[in-house]
Amino acid sequence: MHRTAIASILVPALTCIVQLAAAAPVKGIVKLPAGTTPAALTKAAGYWLLPNDVLNVLPPLVDVRASMVVSIEGTGLTPTAVTKPVFRLEDMRIAPPVLAVRKNTKVTFENKDTVLHLLEAAAEGTSFPATRIAPGTSVAHTFDKEGAYQLRCSEYPHMTGAVVVLDAPLFTSPDNSGAFSFPEVRNGAYTLRVWYQGEWIHSQPLTVQFPRTTVEVQLQQLRLSEKK
Predict the structure, then answer these.
(1) What does the pLDDT look like over 69-96, one tens digit per residue?
(2) Residues 6 or more apart from 59 whose CB is under 8 A from it?
(3) pTM for this structure?
(4) Domain for residue 224, yes or no?
(5) DSSP-derived 3-state class of residue 13
(6) Residue 173 domain-assigned (yes or no)
(7) What CATH number is given to the structural domain containing 150?
(8) N or C: which end of the chain has fewer CB within 10 A?
């Protein structure tokens, strides 16, 4: 067979094989249900008192999508690398509002405020020991079981957060605009899911193709509630 003819067969075949084995960045956006008004802002109820005991202030408004977790599930995925996951207790709030990790991950809680914080379970069934964290210090806790761990500061109950322990290989949290990204996902067919307030609220098929994939996640229903 002529070399040109052989090349015309081999090159497309090799290109196809390379693309099947390739990985592509995945970028997406979570859209709130139709009719949900100004970004469905979740806010803490009431006011809190600043440490100087002078000024009462409202807590910052946070888009609910920053409290969600987006996961990609399927076979052949390289797990998300989570290095030194940290919760910051700073400016009288817990940041990030939700932290997704894998089972047996050690999470560090850093108190950047000038007051003592006492972390405790914020919901029944949450297994988390009451933990004192003095100003300028940190403590670590290993989460060895899957599930959602709702936490709060008993001294300042408006300070809430959640650690979500997952079995999914890939996961991330959207920003305040709902945007999220995965830098490298192997080509293939997967399932994309969204977690919010203790449950998986959305699921859809996802096909990742070289050289890049974009996805729109349209939520149909969303239970909004004020943090207490």
Answers:
(1) 999 999 888 876 666 899 999 988 899 9
(2) 43, 44, 48, 92, 93, 158
(3) 0.78
(4) no
(5) helix
(6) yes
(7) 2.60.40.420
(8) N
